[in-house]
Amino acid sequence: MKKHRLAGLLLTSLSLLLSHSLLAQAEENPALSLAGKRIGITVAGTDHYWDLKAYQGQIDEVKRLGGTPIALDGGRKESQQIAQIQTLIAQKPDAIIETLGTASVLEPWLKKIRDAGIPLFTVDTASPSSINVTTSDNFYIGEQLALKLVNDLRGEGNILVFNGFYGVPVVAMRYDQLKAVLKWYPKIKIIQPELRDVIPNTVQDAYAQISQLLNKYPKGSVQAIWAAWDVPQIGATQAVDAAGRSDIKTYAVDGSPDVVSLVKDPKSSAAAVVAQQPYVIGQTAVQNVAKYLAGDRTLPPATYVPAILVTKDNAAEAQKTLGQTDGK
To answer: What residue stretch is flagged as signal peptide (predicted)?
Structure first.
């Protein structure tokens, strides 16, 4: 237990140092400026903590660097975001940053941005049209969360899996890594059919689905619940705890304050969440835009901002790193 706690604290400290390093590099570079530049910002939606923080990080950083943000929220409607992308193309900003969404739906419109001669950058959207995507390393995130689950279950058990948004690239990466890890642990089975998480009313829907399944599967027949993001985890955790099912643990990704608080609570079934740093991701995307517009053509295809595996052992320390308090 002490070794696991030490490893968690070391990971948290390393992530904080890396994040501070990313921001320090930008602040120390006097050439990093967006003065006189207009930057289009389009996001799939801002109803989720992660999405809102990444969006705010972009807007704030464009302003800090002296630019003018043209920020548009798609309201979680694909048709609305596409219309907004068309609006941005017509306005011909100096660059556009696109955040989240279904890759197959967005790609034709992202290509139109590049065809219009506008530099395109993305956040959490893998696209051949993007000069650079700023994100967390979702391959690593998926692997680390899966390994935590496997170790907690000691390599044996049944799990419920939410898999409603596989068309979102980062979700697919995390799910694929779960399956890759489970391949080597054949005594862990995914209960079929997999669950479909929804937007909106994600928490309520997850609560209802899990409550119903807990009646179907008696104590000892389910050991864990996995989700690719953490809003379904809230509903699932609430359902498990309300039913007194201490035999089940929940796992997810993003690190919203409410979820980190649940993981911190020793009485909660929330066992782990991989916490990203969305505000820093947003800032970093804008810094990459500024570098590119200043003539830097050495940007890699992807910039990774560190994430933190939050567990019962390191949740309090992780809250400090993430600038969170309980539920905030």
So the answer is: 1-26
